[in-house]
Write the structure tokens for this entry.
Amino acid sequence: ETGVTQTPRHLVMGMTNKKSLKCEQHLGHNAMYWYKQSAKKPLELMFVYNFKEQTENNSVPSRFSPECPNSSHLFLHLHTLQPEDSALYLCASSQEVREKGETQYFGPGTRLLVL
Amino acid sequence: AQTVTQSQPEMSVQEAETVTLSCTYDTSESDYYLFWYKQPPSRQMILVIRQEAYKQQNATENRFSVNFQKAAKSFSLKISDSQLGDAAMYFCAYSAYQKVTFGIGTKLQVIP
């Protein structure tokens, strides 16, 4: 496979469930990102990892827990979510986190519905 | 904080015609990058075009070109000879100091 892949593509979960989203990049990049995409809102950056180290946590509630075991894989562990957390969750990667100008490569997203 | 404004929630264009999507941004920085990303209905967002603020020449990628007006903080995307495959959400983005800020997007419909 090439590019950035995400699984599952669709997920329905109850508020008491625990689930995980997976992202894998096959581009040899060192930076990975989680975004939340909701209708009629700008993309919200959630977490950034650079060389496996978390460099950004954009005031995300603790019910979202990221994990980056290596530069190719990124997980988002979900626990006790709320209905307002329903959204499209996008993973992206870039060569690394630099000052500016990094092109990000996105996965297809996981459409999450919290009941 | 930087903001990116896309004032056109939806646009439509006839196939083979030209359309321009607008984007304005707010920043006090002089060195930054601007992007247009495209998100087709399948949802995989891809880079369309990238512009460095220090470069006066407008970026061009095949049928896609930008009109970058630094003083006006404007960064519009022109799509020439529109094709059905251009139908998508288009996001304008600004990048400086390791942060990327996206606009809310413009949905482009291409009419056969």
